[in-house]
Structure formats: structure tokens, C-alpha cells
Design brief:
By secondary structure, the protein is mostly helical. Helices cover 68% and strands 0% of the residues. The mean pLDDT is 85.
Length: 99
């Protein structure tokens, strides 16, 4: 039992170190191409499989952080024209429709 607990602790330490490495690789400055993003997703998924068996909270926290890195990044794109009020609607609403 003592050897098993020592082995579990050693594996947890390795998972913490591995998770830190993968987290550094998840930076947008490092992972730029679609192939690199795919490789990152594979690494994160494999880490998640291993982390699921760990009892170490650090491993589970890294798992959550890593899974966040592979979620699609949403960009808000606003069409400037549609953001401006339509003058005809504004005039009609105020009763100043003219012609």
C-alpha cells in the first residue's frame, strides 16, 4: 500500500509538471497554426483522461485551465452601419416625420 501511495504521488507530480508545460504551449503566441491548435487539443484531451484518475486538486485545476484553452475564441464583430440608429425610425417615433 505504501508503494502504491508513493507511486500515485509521483504520478501526480508528473501530471502537474506536464500540465504546466502544456499550459505554456497553449499560449496564442506559441500555438498559431491550425495544426498546432489540433496538436494542443489532442494533448489537452489526453491530459484530461489521465487527470480524471488523479486525486490531486492541482491536477484537476490544471485540467480545467487546459480545457478552457481549447474552447473556441469568440470575437465580437459589429457592423458599424447597423449600430447607428435609423433616422427615419427615430423621426417617426418622435412624431417629427417630415418630407
Amino acid at each position: 500500500m505504501n508503494q502504491s501511495a508513493a507511486l500515485d504521488r509521483a504520478l501526480d507530480e508528473m501530471l502537474v509538471q506536464l500540465g504546466g508545460m502544456v499550459l505554456r504551449l497553449s499560449s496564442p503566441e506559441v500555438t498559431r497554426t491550425p495544426e498546432e491548435r489540433h496538436a494542443l487539443a489532442c494533448s489537452v484531451n489526453q491530459y484530461s483522461v489521465c487527470a480524471a484518475r488523479s486525486g490531486d486538486p492541482r491536477v484537476h485545476q490544471l485540467k480545467v485551465e487546459l480545457e478552457e484553452t481549447i474552447k473556441p475564441r469568440l470575437r465580437l464583430v459589429a457592423n458599424r452601419q447597423s449600430a447607428l440608429p435609423d433616422p427615419s425610425v427615430t423621426q417617426a417615433a418622435s412624431g417629427k416625420a417630415g418630407g
